[in-house]
Write a structure and sequence with these properties.
Layout: H1 10-21, H2 27-36, H3 47-65, E1 72-76, E2 80-84, E3 106-108
Antiparallel strand pairs: 1-2, 1-3
Helix pairs in contact: 1-2, 2-3
Amino acid sequence: MPTLTQPLSFTDAAERILREAKKPLTHKQLAHKAIADKLVQTESETPEISMHVSIRSEMKRRETRGEPQRFVFWAMGSSAWSISLPESRAKRHEPRLNKFGNQEKTLPINFIRN
């Protein structure tokens, strides 16, 4: 991916990466790819957390304003989370098996109460 003259925000970089990947990614994967591709410029010691907070903040802001969401959080098993674009919701993901050989359920965060 070519280097941009103007760095993107974490959320704009995440959207670009997710569109190219065409699959859900974790906030860590998004942050590492954004930095590796020089899409963002940051001095943060924890860019993964910066990515996560940026996406969650935008989601809350859009929810408050009644705007359509740009991202969807997915629960992958008991403690792992991944992020996708809303259009990925309609796509079927292959079932994953957990360490006990049972099929894991993948749910959008909208269906999980905090």
